[in-house]
Design brief:
about 300 residues, alpha/beta, 3 domains, five-stranded mixed sheet, three-stranded antiparallel sheet, about 40% helix
């Protein structure tokens, strides 16, 4: 009949085994002695044998009671651990969080966000998954990631987003370029140059941004190479394979052989958004991650989290 044993029986018996005194054990369990004694008697009845020997002078454990005490303590500790783990997961304090990202996010705040999150929530396993913006949206919808850093202009209605970063484009030149020492330049001066560009297949938004900035300057860029990642674009520039327009924050990558030149203000800017499924918005673990992201990027955690609108 051991299946009718309740946790209170175990807690009461463990207290008695440690105190070896009914009065002190009952006080420790915050109940009066009569119901405490009844609880011990019920436990013994359920087990079918005595756990303690009582006398007018002392209480001591039987051999069976001593053995039961060791196992009961382990069982109660496991129950307490199970409750703690479940509470942590429910509160977003433990488990796994998968975050999609583009490599270009590393020098633009992602490294600091990961460090802050892992320091505050060491029991949460954070896993970064490198994907393009379009791939991240698909991964969100398939629940393969819980959060993504994207730069897509339009998002599905099931996806919520928050603007995290907005920055201008700058001209990226190899350090051997004749204009590499300039701090400012007119983009039109580079109309005859060959450009290295983000492939439209992987990022139509960035591709269209760069082309539009050049068209506003009076020319269509001569595209020599198309790449999948910003860091690959910049590596090609460093190797003298062309020039590029890149988000200003990428000047902090630390890649050698590059110079960055201001081309003046433009209405077209690089925008990074944090994205997540609307149906997952109240998930505790996602919520604490979003709070850390917002703090690192200096954005309100909720107020600016609005659904992105699709391009017309």
């Amino acid at each position: 009949m051991s299946h009718v044993i309740e946790l209170r029986h175990l807690r009461h018996f463990i207290a008695l085994a440690q105190e070896l005194h009914f009065g002190r054990a009952a006080q420790r369990c915050n109940i009066s002695q009569p119901p405490f004694s009844v609880s011990i008697q019920q436990l013994e009845q359920h087990l079918g044998f005595a756990l303690v020997e009582r006398s007018s002078h002392a209480v001591r454990l039987t051999a069976a009671g001593a053995a039961f005490y060791d196992e009961a303590e382990k069982a109660l500790a496991q129950v307490d651990q199970a409750v703690d783990v479940a509470a942590r997961i429910n509160g977003g304090m433990q488990g796994m969080l998968k975050v999609g990202f583009m490599a270009s996010m590393m020098p633009r705040g992602l490294k600091e966000t990961v460090a802050a999150f892992e320091a505050e929530y060491p029991q949460v396993e954070l896993q970064l998954v490198e994907l393009s913006s379009a791939e991240q949206v698909i991964a969100l919808q398939r629940r393969q990631i819980q959060f993504g850093f994207v730069h897509i202009g339009g998002l599905p209605g099931t996806v919520r987003s928050q603007e995290l970063l907005r920055e201008p484009f700058v001209l990226c030149l190899p350090e051997s370029h004749s204009r590499a020492t300039d701090t400012h330049a007119a983009l039109a001066d580079f109309r005859e140059e060959l450009f290295v560009l983000f492939a439209r297949t992987y990022s139509p938004t960035y591709y269209d941004h760069v082309v539009s900035i050049c068209v506003q300057a009076g020319f269509h860029p001569k595209i020599r190479h198309e790449m999948r990642h910003w860091l690959t674009v910049m590596t090609c520039v460093a190797m003298g394979m062309g020039i590029a327009l890149v988000p200003a924050g990428l000047a902090r990558t630390g890649l050698r052989g590059l110079r960055f030149v201001d081309i003046g203000e433009s209405a077209i800017q690089s925008v990074v958004r944090g994205a997540w499924l609307e149906s997952e918005e109240d998930d505790a673990m996602l919520r604490i991650w979003r709070n850390v992201v917002s703090r690192v990027w200096g954005q309100p955690a909720v107020a600016t989290a609005t659904r992105a609108t699709k391009k017309k």
